[in-house]
Amino acid sequence: METLLEVKNLKKFYNHQHMVLNGINFKIQKSEVVVILGPSGCGKSTFLRCLNGLENIQDGEIIFNGQTISSPKTNWNQIRQKIGMVFQSYDLFPHMDVMENILLGPLRVQKRQKAEVSKQALSLLRRVGLESKQHAYPRELSGGQKQRVAIVRALCMQPEIILFDEVTASLDPEMVKEVLEVILELAKEGMSMIIVTHEMKFAQAVADRIVFFDGGVIIEENNAKDFFATPRSQRAKKFLDIFKFLGGF
Questions:
Q1: Which residues pair with 52 in a beta bridge?
Q2: 98: closest CA among 177, 170, 151, 60?
Q3: Cα 36 from Cα 198, distance rounded (Å)
């Protein structure tokens, strides 16, 4: 398989002393789905933000399609067109309707034709069951609907990989199901994805591989089936036991 994104010895710290990520080595292949698990504060979301250029790194390399993108000279606006990201907080512009939110990036950043992008946006909205909401404003949408719009917005940029950062964390159970179904469909279609989540059943269903973080390092990685059935590290076992106790999977 062809490596799409690779990270070598990535280090991230704040205020020159608080180490958040300590020597991360990571790869994802084309069409692979990697789910990152771990306790709160272990560096999962920071790792995604580093991959998208939203956080500076202090050491190491990020390589995308064979090109080192962790250089100070990197044009992140260009890279983010290929490395899409969907956040927990949706980040939709409240003064724009759904279609305007989706079209903004492709028209302004990619300079594509409005007719072409509008056709693509409508097709994607239809796929996620929101075609009728194309002229609605964010305040008129539920949390699950906003998150599906955010996913469509990312897809309209035609990325090669999408990063999902706890996209269901602020949703109620019904809305969680709506969003996770969309992501599962993308996985079936071969979209490369890195997903940070606390939804264990979803992680089991969608992941080709699980990477378990703790304390800013990768403690364990394995295929999803073996990780959940027989975790190798005591730390991962303890983490999963808590979710089992709480009925999480």
A1: none
A2: 151
A3: 9
| Spatial distance between the Cα atoms of 208 and 63, rounded to a whole number of angstroms | 21
What pLDDT score was predicted for residue 249?
61
Say if CB 90 and CB 171 are below 8 A apart: no
Quote the tokens at residue 77: 């606006």
Query: What is the DSSP track for 23-47?
Result: EEEEEEETT-EEEEE--TTSSHHHH
- The DSSP string of 65-100 is TTEE--STT--HHHHTTTEEEE-TT----TTS-HHH
- Whole-structure pTM value: 0.94
In order along the chain (249 residues), what is the average pLDDT of each group of 10 residues? 94 86 97 96 95 94 95 90 92 95 95 96 95 97 94 96 92 88 94 95 94 96 96 94 73
Contact assessment for residue 151 and residue 129, using Cβ atoms and an 8 Å cutoff: no
First to last CA, the chain: 31
Supply φ then ψ for residue 213, to 5 degrees: -100, 150
CA distance 19 to 59: 11
Provide the residue type at 121 as one letter.
A
The phi and psi torsions of 144 (rounded to 5 degrees) equal: -65, -40
Q: Residues near 35 by Cβ (< 8 Å), separated by ≥ 6? A: 194, 195, 196, 197, 203, 206, 207, 209, 210, 211, 224
In angstroms, the CA 90 to CA 128 distance is 16
Tokens 């989706």 correspond to what residue? 102
